[in-house]
């Protein structure tokens, strides 16, 4: 049930078409400002600015600068999320967007629609071969263009307390049917505990689960018409599954990242957590007393024998349409995310899980201290990452996410499966209405 966004053939003009109605883009007739700019004719040193929120990124750039004195990169630390997106759009309107941009995957369509990101296809060479197909699909948006180079990945996995699973005779679920059975068995074995929780405060997890199930929340055809399908059959299956377990009382309904959630992980009243590859870093601070007691396994599958995961988080490196040195910027973006020395520095200094396949193994990725009982942690993680499905993001993810938090927050508090279903319908209708209001040509699935 993998998504096929990376196989759709649409043009850059199609993606920009909806935004043109509101005057959000600048030079639509040329299909994107500096796509054809070339730094090859520069007579002197090139100086590039890179907007990034990642810690210590300047240390990685310093490696490049030492080896490439004619193309120097200066990192400008920025806030992440919606703040950097808004700032980039404002900078583009003023004609002074930075050369290089760290972009979350779900923000790519918004920035492309606002003509912030350049198509760097002609500078990519064989870069595609260094990434899993699903991850590469996230930076092409289903087109024959390339809007960024994948930087880090967040494949979904299943984390569980190995000691408590053994103590209570619980099995690691390989399918979602088995997951439900394990949740019931855990509740029966430990009445005051839950297998895990359904959290409404971070839509990224639910989006990744829908992605794994085959959900296609946004799609766009060659004419530029968008389709919003957040309440498609695959996503309904996910919503009803979790809503049913919450209503049944075998899955908790408390949000993540709270003192109560931390305590549940630390005390073992939450026996597992569906999360991404970066989870060990969270557990260090959220459940410090459980070091060496966790183990990681592949995500449960909807059908026995399937092998696909979703993603939660992750970002890429793009080149802006304002850059006067697009080729040089693309060269750095490619080096940053594919060169062995750069990948090692990203792991060591920035603490990310590289998107490049060759960056997902080797000595630099040492077993997380919290998982000292699982020496093959990153070997397993790499195998899981290779099965990541491409996500189908759209130009108004923030609207969908904000609506999700409100609607699913109410549904999880009510503990009613039917309300989970209606919450999904609310996210669908408000996301569609928002796109229509913005001037996109849009229909509903």
What's the arrangement of secondary structure elements?
Elements: H1 12-20, E1 46-52, H2 57-67, E2 71-77, H3 81-93, E3 100-104, H4 108-113, H5 133-140, E4 149-161, H6 162-167, H7 176-189, H8 203-213, E5 218-220, E6 226-228, H9 233-248, H10 259-267, E7 272-276, H11 279-286, E8 294-298, E9 311-319, H12 326-338, H13 340-350, H14 377-385, H15 397-414, H16 417-438, E10 442-444
Parallel strand pairs: 1-2, 1-3, 6-10
Antiparallel strand pairs: 3-9, 4-7, 4-8, 4-9, 5-6
Task: Write down the secondary-structure element order.
Answer: HEHEHEHHEHHHEEHHEHEEHHHHHE
Instruction: Determine Rg (CA atoms, Å).
Output: 22 Å
* DSSP helical segment count: 16
Q: Poorly predicted ranges (pLDDT <50, ≥5 residues)? A: 1-41
User: Largest sheet, if any?
Assistant: 7 strands, mixed
Q: How far apart are the first and last residues' alpha carbons, in Å?
A: 17 Å
Percent range of helical residues: 40-55%
Going by helix content, strand content and strand pairing, the class is alpha/beta
Mean pLDDT figure:
90
Q: Globular, elongated, flat, extended or rod-shaped: what is the shape?
A: globular
Number of strands: 10
The amount of beta strand, in percent, is 5-15%
What this model shows, in words?
The longest helix has 22 residues, at 417-438. The protein is globular. Strands 1, 2, 3, 4, 7, 8 and 9 form a seven-stranded mixed sheet that branches. It has a three-stranded mixed sheet with strand order 5-6-10, covered by helices on one side. It has 16 helices and ten strands. The protein has helices at 12-20, 57-67, 81-93, 108-113, 133-140, 162-167, 176-189, 203-213, 233-248, 259-267, 279-286, 326-338, 340-350, 377-385, 397-414, 417-438; strands at 46-52, 71-77, 100-104, 149-161, 218-220, 226-228, 272-276, 294-298, 311-319, 442-444. It starts with 11 loop residues before the first helix and ends with a strand. The chain is an alpha/beta fold and 445 residues long. Helix 12 crosses helix 13 (340-350). Helix content is 41%, strand content 13%. Strand 5 (218-220) and strand 6 form a beta hairpin. Mean pLDDT is 90; it is low at 1-41.
């Amino acid at each position: 049930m993998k998504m096929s966004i990376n196989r759709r053939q649409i043009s850059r003009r199609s993606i920009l078409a909806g935004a043109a109605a509101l005057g959000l883009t600048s030079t639509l007739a040329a299909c994107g400002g500096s796509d054809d700019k070339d730094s090859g004719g520069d007579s002197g040193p090139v100086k590039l600015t890179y907007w990034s929120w990642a810690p210590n990124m300047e240390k990685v750039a310093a490696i490049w600068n030492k080896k490439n004195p004619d193309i120097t990169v200066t990192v400008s630390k920025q806030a992440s999320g919606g703040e950097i997106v808004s700032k980039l759009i404002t900078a583009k309107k003023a004609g002074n967007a930075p050369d290089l941009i760290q972009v979350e995957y779900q923000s790519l369509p918004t920035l492309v629609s606002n003509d912030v990101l350049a198509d760097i296809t002609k500078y990519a060479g064989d870069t595609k071969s260094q990434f899993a197909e699903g991850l590469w699909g996230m930076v092409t948006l289903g087109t024959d263009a390339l809007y960024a180079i994948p930087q880090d990945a967040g494949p979904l996995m299943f984390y569980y307390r190995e000691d408590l699973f053994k103590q209570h005779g619980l099995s690691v679920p390989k399918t979602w049917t088995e997951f439900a059975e394990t949740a019931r068995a855990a509740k029966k074995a430990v009445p005051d505990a839950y297998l895990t929780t359904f959290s409404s405060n971070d839509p990224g997890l639910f989006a990744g689960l829908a992605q794994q199930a085959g959900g296609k929340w946004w799609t766009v055809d060659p004419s530029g018409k968008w389709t919003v399908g957040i309440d498609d059959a695959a996503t309904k299956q996910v919503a009803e599954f979790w809503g049913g377990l919450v209503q049944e009382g075998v899955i908790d309904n408390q949000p993540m990242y709270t003192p109560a959630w931390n305590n549940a992980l630390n005390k073992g009243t939450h026996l597992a957590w569906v999360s991404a590859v970066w989870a060990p870093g969270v557990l260090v601070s959220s459940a410090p007393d459980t070091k060496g007691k966790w183990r990681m396994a592949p995500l449960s599958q909807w059908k026995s024998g399937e092998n696909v995961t979703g993603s939660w988080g992750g970002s890429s490196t793009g080149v802006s349409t304002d850059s006067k040195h697009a080729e040089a910027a693309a060269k750095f973006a490619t080096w940053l995310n594919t060169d062995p020395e750069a990948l090692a520095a990203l792991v060591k200094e920035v603490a990310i899980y590289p998107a490049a396949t060759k960056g997902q193994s080797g000595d630099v990725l040492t077993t997380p201290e919290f998982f000292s009982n699982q020496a093959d942690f990153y070997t397993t993680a790499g195998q899981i990452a290779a099965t990541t499905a491409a996500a189908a993001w759209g130009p108004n993810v923030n609207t969908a996410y904000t609506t999700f938090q409100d609607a699913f927050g109410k549904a999880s508090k009510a503990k009613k499966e039917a309300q989970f279903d209606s919450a999904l319908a609310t996210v669908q209708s408000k996301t569609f209405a928002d796109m229509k209001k913005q001037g996109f040509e849009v229909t509903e699935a």
